[in-house]
Write a structure and sequence with these properties.
About 35% of the residues lie in helices and about 20% in strands. The protein has helices at about 20-40, 55-65, 80-85, 120-135, 195-200, 205-220, 230-240, 250-255, 260-265; strands at about 45, 70-75, 95, 110-115, 150-155, 160-165, 170-180, 255-260. It is globular, with a radius of gyration of 18 Å. Keywords: Methyltransferase, Transferase.
Length: about 270
């Protein structure tokens, strides 16, 4: 019997901590939960979960609060990481060796790739996105549901996080999420921009202009700081939405989030 094909991609550093991806998971559950509930047998993939399987275990628990039938498969290139995760497998949670080829039998309704593409070159990102989104579950006959790829980066303990959400057609939105008590100014999130954007935070690029305007709105909302960082953030985002296509509302802003249409921040050229 021939050996199985080599996984596509390279192993990440594997750094992981419990609750590191809670902000991303909270957003996925709120925004994509209805699509998962509509699916008969929703499958989510935790791609590149790292040295320990905490993020996959947590993803299953969080998604099941929105869609109890959800299954999660954790995928890792490093066979030692897959072996170490097996004691945590349970009903609805499996671990397999693989990479961007996604060795799962069904088309996923969710692919979460957190802190995976940071080690790649910017010009490699588009091909990875296209490969992963091509595997997503399609919408139902009414055009509802379908799969979602969420790809982004966060710090080691999950205080600051930025991610791109993509459907089968490509990128849709960019979300900035933070623990408000730790934020000096919104542009502090620049260091967590996904690979597709992090090198574009320079004058002349949309993401640079967005972060500049974000900081200006934050400064303008300084009087609201006496009511707490949450009130200041909400006032900031409300002002920002006058000039940028913010696609969410106060319910998400209160969580320390803001989501913007991808087209407004997409790299030029």
């Amino acid at each position: 019997m021939p050996p199985p094909p080599r996984p596509v991609g390279t192993a990440t550093r594997g750094t992981t901590n419990p609750n590191r991806l809670r902000r991303m998971d909270r957003w996925i559950t709120a925004v994509h939960g209805p699509a998962l509930r509509r699916a008969d047998h929703p499958l989510a993939v935790d791609l590149g979960y790292g040295h320990a399987p905490w993020t996959a275990v947590e993803l299953l628990a969080r998604l099941r609060t929105a869609a109890p039938a959800t299954r999660v498969t954790g995928i890792e290139i490093d066979p030692a990481r897959v072996a170490a995760a097996q004691p945590h497998a349970r009903e609805g949670l499996t671990f397999v060796r693989g990479g961007f080829e996604l060795p799962v039998p069904d088309r996923p309704h969710l692919i979460r790739a957190a802190n995976v593409l940071r080690q790649y070159d910017e010009d490699e990102v588009r091909a990875v996105w296209e490969r992963l989104t091509a595997r997503l579950a399609p919408p139902d006959p009414d055009g509802l549901g379908g799969g979602l790829l969420v790809e982004g980066t966060c710090d080691e303990i999950g205080r600051r996080h930025v991610w791109v959400a993509l459907g089968p057609e490509g990128p849709r939105t960019v979300t900035f999420a933070t623990r408000l008590g730790s934020l000096g100014r919104p542009s502090d999130l620049a260091e967590r921009l996904p690979k597709a954007l992090i090198h574009r935070n320079v004058p002349g690029e949309p993401v640079h202009a967005f972060l500049r305007d974000f900081d200006r709105a934050w400064a303008g909302a300084a009087p609201y700081a006496s009511y707490g960082a949450r009130q200041r953030w909400q006032r900031t985002v409300r002002a920002l939405a006058a000039d940028w296509p913010v696609v969410d509302g106060p319910a998400r802003w209160r969580q320390g989030e803001v989501t913007v249409a991808w087209g407004a921040l997409a790299p030029r050229g």
